[in-house]
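Module 6 notes. Inverse folding takes a fixed backbone as the condition and produces residue identities as the prediction. Think of it as a translation problem where the source language is geometry and the target language is the twenty amino acids. Below is one complete input and output pair. Work through it position by position during the lab.
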């Protein structure tokens, strides 16, 4: 079971909402909407995706990493390394 499984429906709902926002962005560009208005919506979509990413990261740390560390050994070290890499990718984005 994945760490986010209990909240899967909520994540899917948020991602569908983001998908709608992206389709709205496409329409805005097709309709030649003012640049700043498009950029404002891009920023909103970016923040929404970041919120999903941070939620998934929290779930991963609280469930997957915690379980791997409890198991100990290479599995725990690998899980911490993997989480650190994911955090690094998020920080760079």
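Target side of the pair, the amino acids:
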């Amino acid at each position: 079971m994945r760490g986010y499984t209990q909240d899967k429906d909520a994540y899917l709902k948020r991602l569908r909402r983001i998908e709608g926002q992206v389709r709205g962005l496409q329409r805005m560009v097709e309709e030649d909407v003012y640049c700043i208005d498009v950029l404002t919506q891009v920023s909103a979509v970016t923040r929404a995706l970041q919120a999903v990413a941070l939620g998934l990261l929290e779930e991963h740390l609280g469930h997957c990493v915690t379980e791997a560390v409890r198991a100990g050994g290479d599995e725990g070290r690998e899980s911490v390394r993997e989480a650190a890499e994911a955090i690094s990718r998020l920080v760079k984005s």
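Reference fact for the lab report: Residues 5-92 form a domain with the Methane Monooxygenase Hydroxylase; Chain G, domain 1 fold (CATH 1.20.58.1000).
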